[in-house]
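re: that chain from earlier
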Amino acid sequence: MSKHPAPVAAGARLHALDNLRAILMWLGIVLHVTAIYGFEPSPIIWRDEKRTILADLLTTSIHAFRMPAFFILAGFFAMLLAQSRGPGGLLRHRLARLALPFALFWPFLWVASGLAALAFLNRIALGQWGLDRIVIANLPVPQGPNTMHMWFLWMLLWFCVATSVMLRLPRAWLTPAANALAWLARQPWGFAVLALPLLAAGASYPRGFMVSSGAFLPPWNEWLHNGLFFVFGLMLHGRQTELFAQFQRRWALCAAAGLVFYVVTGVVMRGYGPQLLGAYSYHCAGWLWSFASIGLALKFLQSRHVVLGYLSDSAYWVYLLHFPLTIIFGAVLYQLPLPALLKIAINITATTLVCVGSYQLLVRHTWISQLLNGKRHPRAARAVPAGAGVA
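^ sequence. v structure.
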């Protein structure tokens, strides 16, 4: 294994990052399922009567690094596209891969998620399936349609539009910021500085943690919080040889240090210190675990893996479809006399099987795959019996 990974050539695949993206996508299913069975406050109001502290640990630990790492990868691949196709090519590609799927799938998923949530809440309030008016009347007043779990797609679209514009500016205007980020990335303590803007973004939220609003016009906090990781990914592309090697060398140290900060967060949030300190520790853990996840993938997942490769191919579809499924399976399991951990396992398994199965049957070989991934996979040729076609 090369100590210093070579830069990714135009048109080449970096399977390590594809594999990491597949894992991060599947963790989205885990995240949205465990949120149903935890004790901690959550934007999700459909909660099962069976709870476990392990659900909270899974939710908070995954949330710490999953979207940060996603935005870092998104920035990296955006710069890869810009390098091979230019700013205009990046914009056209992202409009086709982000804007068009959002426009096509968001209305269906918004309705499906809303109906699934109402069905779950009906089960909670009345113990039966339905869309009772009493349940609907007692819901919080809606602020209008929102982007739901697709907020990542929406923000990523606008980050790519901004990148296309930014790359048309003189390079000398952009180099100082890129150099500063690269310098911080090289320092063992750089994560502590990078966590400060995240603390500022979340300072006005309860306990100092920013919560994604799902708004079509998000507040500045969300642009700053998520944009910092995206811009870091843009920088990472131009300095991948050095920083990829560093992430590989330091992955274990970053993972262990992130765990320490995560534990500090838990202690502070139990009332043993100022809450902003807990939020700051959590952001430090997020940066460290993001570096560790990239390093782990580069070290151990450099080639295309059969399972992870398939999950990578299906990742976009899974991302779009999984959220309403986690809700409806949660509703099915509600009131069943099963422990919370078993309900979590069943929900994750069922959601995964439906997502992957529908991808295989409805997406992989169809125009939807072309829309989402830029290609459709050919169906396996049927074996021709021996002697067939012989006169």
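DSSP finds twelve helices and no strands in the chain.
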